[in-house]
Amino acid sequence: MTEEKESLTGRQWLVDKVDNSIKEGQTTIPAIENGICQRCGSSCWARLPSGFLYCRACVGLGRLDEGKLLVRQTAGSHYPARAGMTWTGQLQERQEGVSRFLLEKFAAKEDCLVEAVTGAGKTEMIFPLLAEAFSRGCRVAIATPRIDVVNELYPRLVAAFGEVEIGKYHGREEKEAANEQLVICTTHQLLKYYQAFDLLIIDEIDSFPYAGNPQLHFAAGNAVKKTGSRVFLTATPPEDLLKAARQGKLAIVRLNRRFHGYTLPVPRLDLYVKPFLTKGRLHPKLARRIKMAAKSGHPLLVFLPRIAQMPQYFAAVKRLLPDLRLATVYAQDPDRLEKVEKFRKGDLDLLLTTTILERGVTFKHVWVIIVAADDEIYSAASLVQIAGRVGRDKQDPDGLVLFGYRRYSRQIRSAVKQIKEMNRV
Amino acid sequence: MSLCLFCDQPFTGDLDMRRLLLPGKSKTSCLCPSCRQQFAQIGPAFCPQCGRQQDSGEICQDCQKWRRIYQGNFLHNQAVYCYNQAFHDLMVRYKRYGDYLLCQVLQELAAPAVQKLAADYYVPVPTSPEHRKKRGYDTVWEIFTPLLPLTPLLAKKAGAGAQGEKGKKARMQAKQNFFLNPEFRGTITGKIILLDDIYTTGRTLYHARDAIETAFPKCQVESFSISR
Ligand SMILES: [Zn+2]
Ligand SMILES: [Zn+2]
Ligand SMILES: [Zn+2]
């Protein structure tokens, strides 16, 4: 990892020792204090042969050792005060309500939580808030845990705010940092910022347990200015944020309908007695389901719980439907972004995937099958998210969501219940 | 419960026979079962000269080239793991990011094969001085030092750069950067096994071998790399 050579507003970076490279408007602190990494907030326990501690949690950003210093550029850049919005779309009445709420809370410098079902049009709902922030010359970041979501948000925001400088940052893209007014990045990238933003929006806050993830917590606190405010967006709010909302520490607003006004597709439950795959062959019922879905002409996402099984499933589906354009994708897949793009463009018919595509991504007309929905890897929230991939388009608000399972788990029950509840409101 | 050093997930660590061989370390594995599964052992067929995984037991293309370059005086290398995505990620984190603790994962992967090595001297391929300074450790030395008695016979020139940052062609054209460690006194005879983390083109290990053979022509030199 390359260290930043130039100092940019609101960034923090490591140096070995105090020297004359440290300029006015910069502060320095010891990189590790009381065993806590000052960049990511994790407690450090691993030691180098020298005996010095280092932080394993954020090692990908350049190793942070005891004895090094963290330099923070606090002096501010100024941004033109103009809304910069080129988006001319219309919000629905329900979205409009949420949007107004966000504007009020931003004016009052309060943090807030937006609970909105997947497909509720969360991104559009924040456009007026962004425009308001830009018109005050504020600097804004939108962070999300997933690279795919960053890649999907970026072009939408570039189109919606043609007059604003926008930067995109994630670990898979080597790019010199710049001082853009709007930063779209993975939550991990927030660790490079210190009191940089007037408004910080964190999307899909639940895809990691917020409370159980000290890094994310730390980053969300550090990257925003003391005078700034935060917005958390989620379909399935984590318990600690709900608790903060109940205690009045966090404003909360809910939106239960999708922006096209239709309900969420309710998952079809499909019980299997025998294994899904035996000796390289799919269970006949699962084979029928996949065939049926493929024949319908809908692009199909098939979720598998384990990477290790993917080659066998790939071979089995290939044998079943030799003409189908098929690929596997998982987090460490070097071609992951390309394959997702091909699937989006319709150059692939079926994608065998792990949970990396469970949320945030939109594929038109997609249908979904979860193999082994009872696997421990799926929380109720992730099952709801996966179901939420389907029916996001006004033209095609319904579609197949199939949970294949051998044991009716608590998570499956809870996911179906949540979806039905959301549809009722 | 232990924490997996590779994925940070908690898992119930069974007593691992491989770990029993490591002196002074925890006797449970430092890899969870699903991470361990991602590391693929070489076999059943491999190149008998460099240890690369392949469909047949014939000498591979690269090795035939080495035989031509060295007029038959080739280096015999033993390797244990395929250089797959998991191994690549492990090395990026251990070498590029400098996550020192991962030397324990490499030790655990290498230990069973290392126990079976038999030589008079074990010589690790050295890191360049500037990389050692930047990382705070010598990558190969730290992996093998708890497993074998090491002899620091070689040193690497400053400014030589790391092989890992070069393309295949640039690696093959790299110049000899190893020389006899000036602090080493005495003479050496018998069998030497050179130790490295990855055998990529073979260029590094051949250079290391050449440096030793020039100084001690009577020695018999072989090599061991954790991955190929
Ligand atoms: Zn850290
Ligand atoms: Zn693991
Ligand atoms: Zn070979």
Automatic annotation (TrEMBL), chain B:
Extract the InterPro entries matched here: ComF/GntX_DNA_util-trans, PRTase-like, PRTase_dom
Q: Give the family this protein belongs to, as stated in its UniProt record.
A: Belongs to the ComF/GntX family.
Q: What is this protein called?
A: ComF family protein
- Per the UniProt record, the source organism is Lactobacillus leichmannii
